[in-house]
Amino acid sequence: MSSNLAGRLVRTQTSSIIATTVCFLVVALVLTGLMAHVVVTMTRSANEIDDARASRAARAAIGAFVARLGATTTDNAVWDDAYRAISSPTAADWAYENWGKTSEDYALYDGAIVTGPDRSSVVSAYAKGKPFQPGTFFGEAFYQQINVASDPAKAPVVNFIKTESGIALIASQAIQPFEAAAELPKFSVLSFYKEFTSEVLDTLSNEHELEGLSLETAPKPGSLNTPITDMKGAVIGYLVWPSKAPGSAVFHQVYPYLAASTVILSLFLIGVLLVGASEARRLRQLAQTALFEAGHDSLSGLLNRHGLLNLLEELDNSGSSPPRLYLVDLDGFKAVNDAWGHAVGDDLIRLVSKALTACHPEIIAVARLGGDEFALVHIGSATCGEMEKTILALFAEPFKIDGRTIEVGASIGAAARNGDVPPLELLRRADMALYRAKANGRGQAIEYDPELDRERQRVAELEGQLKNAISSGAIEAVFQPLVSASTGAVTGLEALARWRTATGNISPEIFIPLAERCGLIDALGVHMLRTSIEHAKSWPDLALSVNVSPIQLCNPEFAAEVISVLQELDFNPNRLTLEITEGVLMTNPDQARRSIDQLKRVGIKFALDDFGCGYASIGALRQFGFDRMKIDRSLVWALDEGANGADVLRATISLATALQIPVTAEGIETTRQAAILRDAGCDQLQGYLIGKPMSAYDISSKLEEESAA
After folding, report:
1. Is the pTM here over 0.85, yes or no?
2. Hey, what's the signal peptide range on this chain (predicted)?
């Protein structure tokens, strides 16, 4: 009995040992399997990530190939000389000298074809410097492309095409002048083509890190590929390259160590498995952190621009309800940074981020696109107006930061995804609406309307017309008399810009701000100064006043340009007065002061224009040493609007008198206004009562009449 019991105890202990051993082995195998799974997953993920990168690189390589040939075609097709030459009897010789001969060893294209306006005749066709038959080489697809490209356009028609020897990229565009006339005859077409040779493949491979890149008629098993399609969308070939499989390469490098670890598993298995699991977790955390940081803003934790575009792309692919995008730009954020420092500004960004995230349940995502610009993605039944009111309400109350009360506003631009609108276009539309909202003033909300794009196009066209008008002298100078308040004699003239076009006159209130926005104000200012002086040399007894934009005065080269014009035209600087508005005193006072001092040293005078409609202070009048003050016409017109208008005007003139600054009143339209201003101490008058702006010829006639009388 005791023997049986001892046997049972031994068997029990043996079973326990076996069971423990089996359990240990099972645990070891499970842990080994898990580790193997982690390694395989990491290997596969690395391979897939690199394959995706390589696929994007291949598409980018094709895009770059297409863009290079397209740009080369446009450079040669949209060319006045080419347009004239191809229309001449020597078209074939000209085409050969400029394109055909070049194709022999030119890196950008292998052949050049010029077809006539009838779209079937070949004027010139050379491949590698030798004549060839494009119809035979390319087939019927060539004429189909020529037919599409024969209409004038600024963009070429670019397609891959199957040839006798393989695949080529061909770009075709109508040969046209740079500036199209109202009516043009039918166009000849220029076509460049580049074959997919081994040299081209080597270039694309080196530029885009696609080792082993080749052109095949069908995909290779086990290799990566990108299809090449013709103009009809049919696949005519594939770019094929082997996967680098970096994950597998790394796996093969560490395989001996894994094998060694397996051999000594009995000693180090638990430690190795723990370290491996810990390392896997660390790598996953690093990967998750990297993915999060790539798509999120580090300060606010919101999506960044990249993350927002990815989200919009995912929403588009998911087939969910079309989203509405709101761009929110903070009004007054720069003042917060300037007043309280960037640390407080960062705290404000965080508070605003939290407020925007929780402002409405239908907001599915919030992004920070820039310093103080946010984006909100909305899907739901709430209307655009309701959402805009909700967002603006967030800024109705000030924010509290460390005991500070900080007030900021917001401007909103909204755009809805209607139809097949890509994310970038949706973002652009919202940005267009935001730009208009900011231009309209603080606290505005604007929804995108196609008219915004049309208006931008009109402004762009007007900018081009303005540039041409300045260079061609189409903007003319007219002159308004400045007379002595005591004698009524003309003592000076103010030069004013006028732009007359075939469709009518364009107001200076339109084209001068446009010139300031598009960077043409310096050219316009020099043109007006030069034109005014050229006319004023005919009136040696009169002073000349010319208006100067604040942007001009803040240009460090402005003073030198003015002095150069005076020296070139031999004009006395003492006769010239430059009129500036007080805006220059606020935008860049230091640079303005330097320019004023430099010009005053040569004898040029300065007048403060439109005084009384802004914020110029007595200190500013003293600091800048103005030689004359021009009272804004609103103060003059106020004489007829209220009982205290005359008192305000007299007080203004008294201020100038106390500062020993002569005063000009502009906008005088009645004899009553002139009499009051004369009695108040104004020494110079200007306005329609005195004389309207006149051409130089009319001014000369008026002066001759006065001298004859």
Report:
1. no
2. none
Structural tokens at position 534: 């050229």
Question: Token pair of 516, please?
Answer: 């300031």
599 contacts 563 by C-beta, under 8 angstroms: yes
φ and ψ at residue 506, rounded to 5 degrees: -110, 125
Q: pLDDT tens-digit profile of 592-631?
A: 888 888 999 999 999 888 776 655 556 667 777 788 888 8
Cα angle 703, 705, 706 (rounded to 5 degrees) comes to 65
Q: What is the pLDDT of residue 3?
A: 35
- The structure tokens listed for 180 are 């199209």
Q: 443 near 409, Cβ under 8 Å?
A: yes
- Cβ proximity of 82 and 96 under 8 Å: no
Confidence (pLDDT) at 601: 92
Q: Which two tokens stand for residue 129?
A: 């410097």
pLDDT digit string (tens) for 168-180? 999 888 888 887 6
The per-residue DSSP string of 258-297 comes to HHHHHHTHHHHHHHHHHHHHHHHHHHHHHHHHHHHHHHB-
Distance CA 667, CA 270 (A): 95
Query: Please, are residues 542 and 492 in contact by the beta-carbon 8 Å criterion?
Result: yes
DSSP string, 177-218: -SS--SS--PPPEEEEEEE--HHHHHHHHHHHT-TT-EEESS
H/E run at residue 528: helix 521-536
The residues near 375 (Cβ < 8 Å, ≥ 6 apart) are 303, 308, 325, 326, 327, 328, 366, 367, 368, 369, 427, 430
Q: Identify the bridge partners of residue 476 per DSSP, sorted by sequence position.
A: 498
Q: Are 168 and 194 in contact (CB under 8 A)?
A: yes
| CA separation for the pair 497, 77 (Å, rounded) | 39
Tokens standing for 374?
A: 């946010």
Token couple for 236: 């005519």
Paired tokens of 205: 């491979």
